[in-house]
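The following record pairs a protein chain with its ligand, zinc ion.
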Amino acid sequence: MKPAEAENKARLHVEVSGIVQGVGFRPFVYRLAKKFNLGGWVLNDSRGVVIEVEGDDRDLGSFVEELRASAPPLARIVQVKTSRAEPIGETSFRIVESVSREERTVLISPDVATCDDCLREMFDPDDRRFHYPFINCTNCGPRYTIIRDIPYDRPNTTMSKFKMCPLCEAEYHDPADRRFHAQPNACWDCGPRLILCDADGNEISTDAPIARVTEMLKEGLTVAIKGLGGFHLAVDATNDEAVRRLRARKKREQKPLAVMSKDIPTIRRYAFVNEVEERLLKSFQRPIVLLRKRQPNPIANSVAPRSRWFGVMLPYTPVHHLIMRGDFIALVMTSGNISEEPICFENEEAMERLRGIADAFLLNDRDIFMRTDDSVTRVQQSGQIILRRARGYVPVPVFLKDDGPAILATGPELKNTICLLRGKEAFLSQHIGDIKNFETLSYLEKTAEHLKRILQIEPEAIAHDMHPDYLSTRWAQEQKGLPLFAVQHHHAHIASCMAEHQLEEKVIGVAFDGTGYGTDGRIWGGEFLVCDLSGFERAGHFKYTPMPGGDAAVENPIRMAVAHLYQIWGKDTRDLELKALETISEAQLRVLFRMLEGRINCPLTSSVGRLFDSVSALLGICDYASYEGQPAIELEAFADEDCAEAYEWRIEEKDNLVVDSSVIIHQVVEDIQEGVPREMISARFHNAIAEVTAEVCRKIANKTGLRKVVLSGGVFQNMLISNKLQQLLTRSGLEVFQHSEVPPNDGGVSLGQAVVARNLLKKRQEGK
Ligand SMILES: [Zn+2]
Ligand SMILES: [Zn+2]
């Protein structure tokens, strides 16, 4: 070394935080250090990646620059902190073993779809992993679902029981190898293996389990297949009889079933795919994407009856890729569970709970530690929205504007997720489900414990729904010693969207959904709020309508429709000569009238979701809801999208603004009686809802001077409504905020609860 150069030596201490573990960050740093001729070391610790580099001053600068600019595809750098250190003459670079520290603020990678490099190897007959069903590398494979604890190293995952063979071990320790420190690294000799069992759980001895499964599927049998986050039930999607049998066994009547196809050209045979949708389908998250059906198409009608959409995904594990070579147009790949229960994830559990549903089980001996469903997304005018946030997205945080105390939010009753806040990060859990039974409640509990451990979060307060009877509320109340904050459901909806867009100022919030407990004890769901993150005022709502029989009116939307008719015509309702009314008997109608007249078991609701249900029932589109939201979803599917006409509407201005839905229902009935096509009626109804909503927003904006409108709630999964409203509000000079990373439905509510509770706690701590 020349003396002049030695004088220029400098040393940097670098700390990188974000998603930097389990994503090939250390090998990337290693190669970068080699490139710039730097000595030093890199290690994972519980806060992220720590690096020390020594060398030429200018090279150090370039090193840090490139560190930020060209990080591996799965990494997400939140912060790079550098400080000067004393040079110690280090000239070689090395990777140091992980150290466990008390503080665990590291971010953990979600599960990642099999990458192209691994696919090439898997289909290369000369490769030692030819057809190996658990191939993975630093850039792909299981992550969140196999981590037991952090730091993310093999002993802390469910891969700990597999001892790497010498070849795998060599790859794992070679910084130049693409499997360097790939924690789930494995091969035919040392890794997990497939196990095929018959319907009774007896192992079928075969050296070609994939080929056997392919045959079974071709024969129309149902196979339970263990995937990344749980089991799928697979069946040939072009075989109507097979799909019907699966539905009957699974007790899933009409809800659309997701399908998987091997590539985009195959998907195009039955659905339309635009560029944005294609990118989303191929993204490493590999979500289910809702795609518009092509008509006619080769998919069995029973896959998604009465829907305009198919939920489609591409293969994301090696096993999927191997099975899809069986030349299927599509396979149904639906969550391996019985309706209402969480997805199965353990071998024994699956064989017990799916007994009688699956004709065979394709298992493996790699355990899933944290069960996680497939994510569901859709592309609309405002961009991509996530309808169910789970595999591929969890546990990537939503980044908040402000710091504050750690909070746990237990979410609502339906489509539950929980949420943990830590500093500026909000961690929404994977989709947990409807917290109506012991199974889902214990899944919630396990998820909360797990996230608290791996993210090292000790909540200072707990947020929950205002509804006193929800199991998620009761569970919150059982957690002793922490302050509790009850957050109103629709306020939480708006707060979740505000958090996503880092809004803190007062906004106009429009929260439309099916059900949420209101501050007056009534069932809200058509709400106009003026709110910020700590409180809200109800500036307007849809008119209260009785719900005869409460929840029974959700399942049987015709009951809800009768309630609407009764508000206009009273007992003359029976003379309306509506075909929809023929679905209930004269006796039933009399009972309904008596209930409505005496207000017996008729809670009041302002729900827009229920209004959609009523119109759907009146049009004879859906008179029985086999899943939440079905009538509204089918009503949307019926609408003539080219029709711009709208029904007239009326807003009553009392203490606050009340949208009188009777005016709209009146015109719906007139149109039905005049024989107007259902497509037109549905369109006029949708347009009227969008218009009246925009008008209420304008009125509130004029009164308050607020210009920002935030839209949230399950109704905004309705593309017609959200697109139209976006246009109308924008045209009025208002700024519109819709969801993208966080679900508009109840899956996002826990985030809103958490940020509201944090704000209230902060105020309390500041003595305000
Ligand atoms: Zn890979
Ligand atoms: Zn091996």
